[in-house]
Amino acid sequence: MFQNEASITAQGGTGPNYTYVWSNGQTSATAARLDTIVYTVTVTDERGCTANFESEKIEDHPAFNIIINFTLPSCFGSVDGAAGATVRTGGTGQGYTYLWNNPEGSTTPLIQNIAGGVTYTITVTDSQGCTANKSAPLPQPNPIAFETSTTDVRCHNGADGTASVINVTGGNDNYQFTWDDEAGNATTAVVEGLTAGIYTVTVSDELGCFAERQIQVIEPTPLVVTFQSKATLCNGSVDGAVSASVSGGIPSYQFLWSNDVVTSKTDRLSAGTYTLTVTDANNCALVSTVDVAEPDPIDINITPQAPTCAGSRDGRLDITATGGTLPYTFSIDDKSYRITPTFLALSAKAYNVFVQDRNGCKTSVVYPLIDPPAFTVSIFPNQTAFEITEGESVQLFAEAINQTGKVDFVWSPSFQEEVSSNPTGSLSCTECFNPIAAPKNTIFYELYGVDEAGCEATDKIQIRVAKSRVVLVPTGFTPNADNLNNNLLVHGTEGAIITLFRVFDRWGELLFENSNFPTNDTEAGWGRHFQRGRNALGGLCLVS
Questions:
Q1: Is-contact 203 175, C-beta < 8 A?
Q2: Phi, psi dihedrals of residue 536, rounded to the nearest 5°
Q3: C-alpha span between 460 and 379 (Å, rounded)
Q4: What is the SS3 assignment for 291?
Q5: Quick one: 162 and 99 in the same domain?
Q6: In whole angstroms, what separates CA 340 from the centre of its chain?
Q7: N or C: which end of the chain has fewer CB within 10 A?
Q8: What pLDDT score does 494 carry?
Q9: Which residues pair with 319 in a beta bridge?
């Protein structure tokens, strides 16, 4: 926009109220905003008299020549730069005012503490209000830039990582390196022996300009071993197994068990603790242990019930078991197994008791089932045979040994050697302790006893009855010349009469016969002659 002016002063004519008309149409004594040309003005006085005048050629003030000088910031991003403006020529040459476009809107030729990378503009105004603008960018120093490289930690929780600063550019020379506390406040471009983590490094130049960056050193995840353990089937058996699953670290993995197996699974194991060393591709190793369990040994406990009586078959074995793996089966012959742990109707002997669990594990124990002391009864007199004379009696007594509770006795003639129409009639009682026996003939008496447990016993005694002898015939004689025992005589009770006396040989031939003679008659005997007076041969004869 043009800022030139032209003024005219009128004299003469009839004044003082003159009017003015400029060639650009303005109507005041002063025309403004004029171009650099010659203008004409017509002046009219109060009487209407006019006069024309021509202005001098209007000339512009010299154009503004503004110079901006910068002082660069010391570092990239620093706010310590400066800019100074100088108006060398232009305008009225005096009374300049200044206005910068910085945030503060500074009004001095010099501004300080400004940032680089910004275009700064200054507006200069002269005394006549003429203005001019000047813009210039304030450069940024090259930033310090660098790259980093790392070597990761080889094993989890290791301390062999490295971090390096490489390819540093920008800033000024003489770079220095400063690492944080975690890196040991190192001052070198390369730091070693690092654990996994985030590290901060600062690279600075000789002016104190710096750049900072975080560097992450990573590590593998920890090696983790998960075991699946299979217990042995039986206590002491060698059929356990363990398998291992591995995660973390760097695959692939190698395995070494304490039993020298080199696969992830090992079997045919007995119970115990096994060690596994797992090594990954970085040669990182993890040592772990795992237990192979086993069932408790099968333990047998037996509650016996002895037979009620010696020799009876009502004994009992109740079996309980612990250990192993439920359920159990039971046997007393290792052939027939059953789930019922009770065995009945047993006689006394040693039983081999077997218990087998669900896995087929078996154990046994020998248990003797013992008879109680034998219940016995005895008859007194304590003789197998007892002799009385016909017509006499004897009192018998019963005794019990090892009885349970009260004993009931029953006497009877179990068998006899002579026929009797009333065999029990010779006992004074049959269900008593001490009957009196008065048998007429030789007889066996039997004692039967039963105690409160139902145990039974018997004893027997023979009572021999001696008959009174009426006659006695010797079993031999010696008919020779010694005159001793030459005749076979019939002896007996005085006064007894022998109604018939016969002697037969072994073939049944009658050798001698006599009758109706008294006993002890020396003349009535046989003197080794046949009936017909012949001598008899020696040998066996039958007398009747």
A1: yes
A2: -90, 150
A3: 7
A4: strand
A5: no
A6: 31
A7: N
A8: 78
A9: 302
Instruction: Indicate which CATH number applies to the domain containing 151.
Output: 2.60.40.10
Stated length of the chain: 544
Within-domain flag for 60: no
Q: Which residues of the chain have pLDDT under 50?
A: 1, 414-424, 530-533, 540
CB atoms within 10 A of CB 409: 20
Q: Give the domain extent around 40.
A: 4-50
CA 280, 283, 284, 288 dihedral sign is: positive
Identify the CA nearest to 408 among candidates 375, 384, 374, 440.
375
Q: Which residues contact 75 (CB under 8 A, 6 or more apart)?
A: 141, 171, 207, 208, 209, 210
| pTM for this entry | 0.58
- Give the residues across from 137 on adjacent strands: 119
Give pLDDT, residue 347: 97
* Domain-embedded: residue 415: yes
The SS3 assignment for 189 reads coil
Spell out the long-range contacts of 535-540 with Cβ–Cβ below 8 A and sequence spacing 24 or more.
536/505, 536/511, 537/505, 539/505, 539/506, 540/505, 540/506
The label of the residue with tokens 């400066």 reads: 82
Measured in whole angstroms, the distance separating CA 272 from the mean position of its chain's CA atoms is 13
Structure tokens at 23: 């060639």
- Helix then strand then coil, % of the chain, to nearest 5: 0, 50, 50
How far, in Å, CA of 201 to CA of 55, rounded?
76
Measured CA to CA, the distance from residue 116 to residue 137 in angstroms comes to: 8
| Distance of alpha carbon 284 from alpha carbon 287, whole angstroms | 10
